[in-house]
Amino acid sequence: MNKLAYMINRAGRYYAKQTAVVLGDRRLTFAEVDGRSNQLARALIQLGVAKGERVAILLYNCLEYIETDFALIKAGFVRLPLSPRLSPGEYSYMINNAEASTLVFGREFTGIIEQIKGELETVKHFVLVGEGDACFAHPYDGLLSAQSASSVCVDVCDDDPYQVLYTSGTTGWPKGAVTTFRSRLSTLATVLIEEMRVTRNDVMLSVAPLAHGGGTKILPHFVRGAVNVLLPKYSPESFCRTVEKERVTTTWLVPTMIIMLLEYPDLKKFDLSSLKTVVYAASPMPVATLRRALETFGNIFVQVYGLSEAPNPDLLLPKEDHILDGTEQQLRRLQSAGREVFGVRVRVVDAAGKDVPPGDIGEIIITGDNIMTGYWKMLEATAENIREGWLYTGDMATVDEDGYVYIVDRRKDMIISGGFNIYPREVEEVLHRHLAVVEAAVIGVPDELWGESVKAVVVCRPETKVSEDELIAFCQANLASYKKPKSIEFVKELPKSANGKILKRELKKKVLGRLRPHG
Amino acid sequence: MNKLAYMINRAGRYYAKQTAVVLGDRRLTFAEVDGRSNQLARALIQLGVAKGERVAILLYNCLEYIETDFALIKAGFVRLPLSPRLSPGEYSYMINNAEASTLVFGREFTGIIEQIKGELETVKHFVLVGEGDACFAHPYDGLLSAQSASSVCVDVCDDDPYQVLYTSGTTGWPKGAVTTFRSRLSTLATVLIEEMRVTRNDVMLSVAPLAHGGGTKILPHFVRGAVNVLLPKYSPESFCRTVEKERVTTTWLVPTMIIMLLEYPDLKKFDLSSLKTVVYAASPMPVATLRRALETFGNIFVQVYGLSEAPNPDLLLPKEDHILDGTEQQLRRLQSAGREVFGVRVRVVDAAGKDVPPGDIGEIIITGDNIMTGYWKMLEATAENIREGWLYTGDMATVDEDGYVYIVDRRKDMIISGGFNIYPREVEEVLHRHLAVVEAAVIGVPDELWGESVKAVVVCRPETKVSEDELIAFCQANLASYKKPKSIEFVKELPKSANGKILKRELKKKVLGRLRPHG
Question: Shortest CB distance from B320 goes to which of A189, A201, A318?
């Protein structure tokens, strides 16, 4: 029994002639997507790809991404999604480490693949999506057209691996978090129960790269008969145009995208009234931004928290908790990442593994069907991260009397200055409250006297002027003195992952490079 | 890990001071219900009840029913719900057959229990809910007050038994369908995903006996922070009054209750505008009634299909499919019981076990996490009903091109007259279209010439007059001639189960008794 494959196939039958996925002018019906994913599954099986083998995917958001995802599920292959903005070295590391036998890539990546092809030790089959001449690769369309579209459903059990997802890798090489079909089934249920509550009247717009968390919302919509709309590249204009044209009801954005929308001068020109659920995730949402978003779009926001090792969502802050004119307690909850979702347990514990009392800072630990079984071929790292069935996330947080979790920061991003612990997020929250500030990132830089000192890197609104001293004074007025930045650097943009996360490690490297040009 | 217990406990913490359950003027908070169920679990454990032992429950809808249900989950006891309208002999059979060690009963049942007490071979502990003097029983409140309210969570695995639910038993003795914690978790998810889509703003009204399908909706509402309102006895007036007073959003009714509502002259005097979801189930809904209900209440109806052996829901017809002014296809779907729900597979097969083509009649078979593991201590009956993981339901149906299932009738209710198969439900549908008819039941009676002949038993609207000949002529005009009733009997009411199902077996007994007074 392959429950996921069955659900895809069922949607192909139930909603056969309805539009399933949309990209620009291309539209495919449920029967077509189902049939084409059967064809791809058949083609890969015929090439000799066996159940359990890793299939790497390096594609921008496109219809073929969805077909490939579904083909992998149907054939029991293991998904290895590659983020579209990494370096060639990272790609070859991940593909080799996961021992992928197959690589499905888009024509835009042909150059990169040609460059690293010689290093890929395990890949036997290359599949090229789109026009191009990579003679070493099977053309995607050719593979499909040679196959029957009839149903494929290779038996899997819930404990079989579904995915190897490489973490951003803050230290050393990235690690591949292995999750099972059980995990996918459980997150599918949670999305349906709490995150998006999909009905077949919904239209979901995916703008974040499908390799990331946002991509996991396609399947819940497909199995419920809703429409999936894809956008290969986010811009406020393309987003608004698509929402208006396709009457989008649901989307999944990272905070940066919401900030860009709020700054977009033409926002009011579009009819976005169809939007009823905007899930935001992947990085902290400054409360000042959230307030503006609620004022602009109304009560349509849902926050989720999750990570590669415990796929989205683990915590969820529902619409009911996004209240602007509520009690003090309700307003405080705008800062929270929410509470445990259905079937997941989240605790905040001290170094000894005991629950911290409300208000104290501890580490978030998680258990549930969704968490990874471990890191691919890294037993030690696994043992460090999973203890007695609980995943240790490295995220520091507090919890209140009602179980709401407030994320303080990543443990590794904590700054220690003069013996004090400073969590950058707290400083960033204050900076975001200043009208001139669009985005802010706070890092620790070496300081001979204090060990580390607080530095802010800030993107300002073009039309505004604010000096370093003014901003530091603003922080001083709103924070304990030792937390205020010692220096502020103004930049045009912050380095970000494909998923819109601010890359603090990269930012630190850049800043330190400038600080110590010969270091 | 006891996932259900954890979810109950979590709701107790998350929504602690909010109202959880309401019965008349009595209100308990989430913390109280959680705490009191802990107390009961502790008391039973202290009495010596062990994990896996069956605990029988014989109560009208009351707050203690919910507490008992939750206590059983927390302690890993097996639920044995007894329908409140059975005979003493049936109770003692079920309790003995299931080898229950404990019986929790309401004061209204004291007489019955005293009567059968001597026959109950395995019951060691009696618990009496409410005032009364049954000296052999522990008083419920006394048990609770002696215990701590702190959390109880006995480890269970998903395969451990959760319930023994006795079927109505159409032939021979009732059979106990054993379902697991896995089944309960899966139906919990389905209720949340499709059937009721609960949010914490919801108010659920339970009017059908909690021993039946309707009682399974309490838990999904409790774990999501919604309010559960109980009504011990259904009447249109008490229903309307409660909906208005408690601003009820969601309820679960059997068709008979909806018919009674529609006939209720004071209906318009109440403000029922808070109702947004009415799930109906348990017996066929005549299309004529459904149309009136939609016209009266708007598009708030959801149909579900399920059975003791495969707990609700297996099939579901959502609001989107309750359309009065749609295409011919959409109108036809009003007759359907819907399509498979999330995680359940339903097929309609011929005698050889092959899927029937659209339009042909076959038997409904079901598989999924929700189906029973078997009948309690009845291996043969189990083997007859579960083959290769599929439950054979005995319900006959057709399926259309899009997977909608149309229930024709119970196989055993089929009438064979002159070699023709006649499904009573088809005849009943026609009778319901006649303005004078409130309810109709069609049965087969012995006929020397034809083997069986069709007989209708009809309840008419008090103010209307219709003759037997008129109604037969009406059927003749709307049915193939061999299907029309040969005779019609007018009665004041039809025999029904506690859950509102028309008891055809009993009806047949009565009618045959009258036909052959000395037989």
Answer: A201
| CA atoms of B294 and B346, how far apart (whole Å) | 27
A479: left (phi over 0), alpha (psi -120 to 50) or beta: beta
Contacts made by residues B321-330, CB under 8 angstroms, sequence distance 24+: B321/B404, B322/B290, B322/B294, B323/B299, B324/B291, B324/B294, B324/B295
Domain closes at, from A156, A186, A214: A156
Q: Which residues of B touch A189 (CB under 8 A)?
A: 189, 193, 342
The answer as to whether A183 is a domain residue is: no
Instruction: Quote the mean pLDDT of chain A.
Output: 93
Structure tokens at B297: 């209440």
CB within 8 Å: A200 and B320: yes
Cβ pair A14:B343 closer than 8 A = no
Cα A350 from Cα B30, distance rounded (Å): 28
Average pLDDT for B6-23: 96
Of all residues in chain B, what percent carry a pLDDT higher than 70? 98
Residue B278 lies in a domain: no
Q: Would you place residue A85 in the very low, low, confident or very high pLDDT band (cuts 50, 70, 90)?
A: confident
CA B444, CA B413: separation in Å to the nearest integer?
8
Q: What is the pLDDT of residues B456-478, one digit of tens each?
A: 999 999 888 899 999 999 999 98
Interface of B with A (CB under 8 A): 3, 6-7, 10, 13-14, 16, 189, 192-193, 197, 199-201, 223, 318, 320, 339-340, 342-343, 345, 402-403
Tens of pLDDT, residue by residue over A446-501, are 888 888 899 999 999 988 889 999 999 999 999 888 899 999 999 999 998 777 78
Range of the domain at B436: 414-515
Mean pLDDT of the region A361-369: 96
The string of DSSP letters for B187-222 reads HHHHIIIII----TT-EEEE-S-TTSGGGGGHHHHH
Contact status, residue B348 vs residue B356, Cβ threshold 8 Å = yes
Predicted confidence (pLDDT) per residue in A211-265, tens digit = 988 889 999 999 999 999 999 889 999 999 999 999 999 999 988 899 999 999 9
Angle between helices B30-47 and B3-14 in degrees, nearest 10? 140
**Nearest-angstrom CA–CA distance, B175 and B179:** 13
Any idea what DSSP says for residue A354?
Answer: P
- At A433, the amino acid letter reads R
Look at residue A192 and tell me whether its pLDDT is greater than 90.
Answer: yes
User: How many CB atoms within 10 Å of residue B359?
Assistant: 10
**Structural domains counted in chain A:** 2
A74: domain CATH number is 3.40.50.980
Q: What number is the average pLDDT over the span B330-342?
A: 93
Q: Which helix (H) or strand (E) holds B114?
A: helix B110-116
* Domain C-terminal end among B134, B156, B178: B156
Is position B471 within any domain?
Answer: yes
Segment (H or E) for A458: strand A451-460
User: pLDDT per residue over A276-314, tens digit each?
Assistant: 999 998 677 888 999 999 999 999 999 999 999 999 899
Among chain A, residues having any CB pair with chain B shorter than 8 Å are 3, 6-7, 10, 13-14, 16, 189, 192-193, 197, 199-201, 223, 318, 320, 339-340, 342-343, 345, 402-403
Most B CBs within 10 Å, among A329, A342, A344, A346, to test the B interface: A342
pLDDT average, residue stretch A334-354: 95
- Whether residue A212 is contained in a domain is answered as no
Rounded to whole angstroms, how far apart are CA atoms B317 and B425? 19
Partners of residue B193 in chain A, C-beta under 8 Å: 189, 192-193
The secondary structure of residue B341, as a DSSP letter, is: P
In Å, how far are B161, B206, B371 from B215, measured between CA atoms? 18, 7, 18
